[in-house]
Amino acid sequence: MFVPGDSERKMTKAPACGADVVIFDLEDAVAPGAKAEARQMTRDWLKEQRGGAAGGTGQPVPQYWVRINPLDTPLWQDDVEAILSGKPAGIMVPKAEGPAQLNRLIKLLYEQESRNGVIPGETKLLPLVSETAYAANGIASYGKRRNASSRIAGLTWGAEDLSAAIGASRKRDEKGRWTDLFRMVRAQTLLAAHAAGVAAIDTLHADFRDEEGLKRVARESYQDGFAGMMAIHPSQVAIINAAFTPDEKELAEARAIVELFAANPGVGALQLDGRMIDQPHLAQAIKLLASIGEAPGT
User: Fold this and answer.
1) Which of 64, 216, 230, 273 could bridge to 204 as Cys pair (CB 3.0-4.6 Å)?
2) What gap in Å lies between CA 18 and CA 46, rounded to an integer?
């Protein structure tokens, strides 16, 4: 979930929001004149929270990340130098234009990690890969093994900046579905992330009052193979978490598949409830059970 980096009130509420990751935003959520104050406030907050708990709420402690300013601006280096002493878990990179561009950031991170007592390579990256036409045209490059970086924890995309960049007056059709361009960008992000072996994170649902719409798109995102989804309001977090949690029917089927293959060692294809299942079904079932910490056969 995004939290403005210059709002102490919203920062204070962040640990109890229920999100797995809280991203303190130094980019779009902060006015140009407040950038310096935001980076200092974010750094100080991170230092205070390091090693702390979620305020006794019973909520798991989220990871704290920071969205810096774009790498083609003079602001990002000041952002990184300020916040690394707060030891964020990771950095979201807006308007990322490809793996090669990230090398400048990675070089600075190694320098700042050594100065701030951070294990080299520990600060992860989440590039926003679609916010310009140039960036969107190169999404597949993140999935090439020679461009893979151990720092990249996932890939995500956004529609707002891209629509402005290309002059699109709509992003969704009359049925509320993404138009062709944005569907293509979303699919490329999903494929590139899986090719690189990192998390695919779906974009946000901008209308935070539209709970029914969010339920639909979040569940579709989970079913399409995304590992998570971004949120811009605390009310969205519980809905997204529910959508990305396997239900009992899915878990029961996964257990049945695993048990069936365990009972028939050496068999490549079997029948379950009148349909054929084979090794890809078994792999998917094992992966699903692993997502809730359940090992096959337990």
Assistant:
1) 230
2) 18
